[in-house]
């Protein structure tokens, strides 16, 4: 019922209808009061929910800020580790190049020493086999020299034995079918 209808009914009604109308108004007043109370409760619940949501959002933003700071620190640490690893690889590369240069220098020096030793060994072999004109003397001199320079002996030298073997082979090839050495 609209307020105008209620007003018209009040003016035109009698005593019985007035009691019914009063009862209806009382019930309607209680219903409205209950609805008002429910709306007020819903409003309080809504305000509480809104405050809780704001509090959750604030805590979430704080957590998010803390996590972002942690992520930035971790990224900085990763960058520092990356820089250290990069520097380490650069140092390793520099050391590798220096080592290769040093190795090349040592190989060169070793080659020079081997040339000198080969020349000295060839001279020494020429002296050691000097006067051995036939195959029997060459073989006897070779046996005597091997007894002195064999690696199992106290003053033995492997390189010297190799050089003696090469010289012996060369001298044997230089001998003719009669055992005499042909001078080349």
Descriptive notes:
- It is a single chain.
- Among the domains are: 3-74; 131-184, no CATH class.
- The protein contains four helices and no strands.
- The protein has helices at residues 3-12, 15-128, 135-149, 158-174.
- It starts with a helix and ends in a 10-residue tail after the last helix.
Structural class: mainly alpha
Residue fraction in strands? under 5%
Based on CA inertia axes, which overall geometry fits? rod-shaped
The ordered H/E elements are HHHH
Secondary structure tally, helices: 4
Give a short account of the largest sheet. none
Query: What integer value in Å does the Rg equal?
Result: 58 Å
Mean pLDDT across all amino acids: 86
Fraction of helical residues: over 70%
Please name the defining characteristics of this protein.
184 residues, mainly alpha, rod-shaped
List the helices and strands and how they pair.
Layout: H1 3-12, H2 15-128, H3 135-149, H4 158-174
Summarize the model shown.
This protein has 184 residues and is mainly alpha-helical.
């Amino acid at each position: 019922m609209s307020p105008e209808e209620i007003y018209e009914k009040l003016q035109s009604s009698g005593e019985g209808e007035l009691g019914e109308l009063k009862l209806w108004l009382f019930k309607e007043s209680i219903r409205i009061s209950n609805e008002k109370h429910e709306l007020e409760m819903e409003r309080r619940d809504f305000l509480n929910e809104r405050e809780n949501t704001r509090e959750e959002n604030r805590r979430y933003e704080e957590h998010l800020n803390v996590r972002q700071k942690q992520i930035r620190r971790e990224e900085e640490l990763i960058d520092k580790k990356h820089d250290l690893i990069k520097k380490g690889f650069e140092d390793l590369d520099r050391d590798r190049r220096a080592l290769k240069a040093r190795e090349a220098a040592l190989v060169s020096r070793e080659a020079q020493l081997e040339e000198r030793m080969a020349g000295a060994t060839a001279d020494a072999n020429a002296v050691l086999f000097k006067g051995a004109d036939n195959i029997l003397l060459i073989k006897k001199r070779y046996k005597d020299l091997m007894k002195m320079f064999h690696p199992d002996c106290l003053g033995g030298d492997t390189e010297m034995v190799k050089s003696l073997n090469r010289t012996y082979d060369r001298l044997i090839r230089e001998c003719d079918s009669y055992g005499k050495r042909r001078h080349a």
